[in-house]
């Protein structure tokens, strides 16, 4: 073996050893998960639940960094440009990692090209909510009122392209009504105004709607799931009451900036898989209406396929439903 080749071989061996050592030592410090909505909303709540579970097998703290704005696209763009060193991740969801390319003319990132998918979270159905003293007692009431009063109903949402915005827009499109969308920096501030009666309705994920419903400050009209849920006694689905076939759930996933080492991605994914098998945690998620996915739907490859198919799907949905960012 000549000298040059020997040096090349030695350098390559050192590089492999260094990567292996890094993988062994990862994580050497706390990790940041960016949640691009205000604290207290469903994305934040679910992210904190899961971060708490994943931190244990990783042996390092996972810090939630709320970076709200523009329906989650501000924080997403910043995370796409973060160091790809395994210490910054994005908690993504169907809005800013699925629908956003169809809705935003200028998006500072590409959900499919600028990230490494890590694992998919469980899905969360939503519930149509009104203030406690709302005159609208059913989804059919709400739709009938909106047909008589186009544009009069204010729906709170978490910003342009957020789940609460998208599902309300699809609801209006399917029901043939006009609503007015009122954007906030997350579902939590929107919920505060729903409770105060400042907005007439909003769609929220079940994990944050349930505690508010328990407090008796809001009322549920209908679920976006295909089946009724024991956690929502006597609450029908939209599909059975007002909009046959209407179904929606928020999907989520953890993403790392493009270029994050594959062995780091695998280590975080495996930490989730080991934690998500905890029966007490599965029960807690189920009590919040959150539905676990099959193991093969949670992998990095499955999340990549899902992201690509969702970006394609929302291009069609946005066109058919004439979804725009008002
Ligand atoms: C959304 O409506 O897209 C988000 O779930 C809002 C939030 O989590 O705050």
Structure description:
The chain is α/β, with parallel strands linked by helices. It has 2 domains: 30-123 and 251-321, 3-Layer(aba) Sandwich (D-Maltodextrin-Binding Protein, domain 2); 124-249, D-Maltodextrin-Binding Protein, domain 2, CATH 3.40.190. The chain has 12 helices and 11 strands. The protein has helices spanning 3-25, 42-58, 73-80, 95-103, 139-148, 163-175, 187-195, 206-214, 238-241, 262-276, 279-287, 300-320, and strands at 31-35, 62-66, 88-93, 115-120, 124-131, 154-157, 180-183, 202-205, 218-223, 249-250, 252-257. Strands 2-1-3-11-4 form a 5-stranded mixed sheet, with helices on both faces. Strands 5, 8, 9 and 10 form a 4-stranded antiparallel sheet that branches. A two-stranded parallel sheet has the order 6-7. Strand 6 (154-157), helix 6 and strand 7 (180-183) form a beta-alpha-beta unit. It is elongated and about 85 Å long. The termini are far apart. Bound molecules: D-malate. D-malate (MLT) binds at residues 37, 41-44, 95, 158, 162-164, 186-188, 205, 250.
Task: Please give a quick description of this structure.
This protein has 326 residues and is an alpha/beta fold.
Keywords summarizing the entry:
about 325 residues, alpha/beta, D-Maltodextrin-Binding Protein, domain 2, 2 domains, five-stranded mixed beta sheet, four-stranded antiparallel beta sheet
Please outline the helices and strands.
Elements: H1 3-25, E1 31-35, H2 42-58, E2 62-66, H3 73-80, E3 88-93, H4 95-103, E4 115-120, E5 124-131, H5 139-148, E6 154-157, H6 163-175, E7 180-183, H7 187-195, E8 202-205, H8 206-214, E9 218-223, H9 238-241, E10 249-250, E11 252-257, H10 262-276, H11 279-287, H12 300-320
Parallel strand pairs: 1-2, 1-3, 6-7
Antiparallel strand pairs: 3-11, 4-11, 5-8, 5-9, 5-10
Helix pairs in contact: 2-10, 4-12
The protein binds D-malate.
């Amino acid at each position: 073996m000549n000298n040059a080749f020997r040096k090349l071989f030695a350098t390559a061996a050192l590089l492999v050893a260094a990567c292996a050592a890094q993988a062994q030592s990862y994580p050497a410090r706390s990790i940041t998960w960016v949640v691009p909505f205000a604290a207290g909303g469903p994305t934040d709540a679910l992210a904190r639940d899961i971060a708490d579970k994943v931190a244990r097998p990783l042996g390092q703290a996972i810090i939630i960094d709320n970076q709200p704005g523009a329906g989650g696209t501000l924080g997403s763009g910043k995370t796409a440009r973060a160091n790809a060193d395994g210490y910054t991740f994005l908690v993504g969801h169907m809005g800013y990692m699925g629908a956003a390319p169809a809705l935003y003319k200028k998006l500072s990132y590409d959900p499919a090209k600028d990230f490494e998918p890590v694992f998919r979270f469980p899905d969360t159905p939503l519930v149509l909510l009104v203030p406690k003293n709302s005159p609208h007692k059913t989804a059919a009431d709400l739709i009938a009122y909106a047909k008589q009063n186009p544009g009069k109903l204010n729906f709170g949402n978490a910003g342009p392209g957020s789940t609460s915005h998208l599902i309300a827009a699809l609801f209006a499109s399917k029901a043939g009504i006009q609503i007015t969308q009122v954007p906030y920096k997350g579902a939590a501030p929107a919920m505060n105004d729903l409770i105060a009666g400042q907005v007439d309705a909003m769609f929220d994920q079940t994990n944050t709607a349930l505690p508010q419903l328990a407090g008796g400050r809001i009322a549920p009209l209908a679920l976006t799931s295909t089946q009724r849920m024991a956690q929502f006694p006597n609450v029908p689905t939209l599909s059975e009451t007002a909009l046959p076939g209407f179904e929606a759930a928020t999907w989520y996933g953890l993403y790392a900036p493009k270029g994050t080492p594959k062995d780091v991605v695998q280590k975080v994914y495996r930490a989730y898989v080991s934690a998500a098998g905890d029966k007490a945690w599965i029960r807690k998620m189920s009590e919040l209406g959150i539905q676990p996915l099959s193991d093969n739907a949670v992998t990095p490859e499955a999340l990549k396929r899902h992201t690509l198919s969702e970006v394609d799907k929302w291009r069609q949905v946005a066109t058919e439903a004439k979804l725009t960012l008002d």
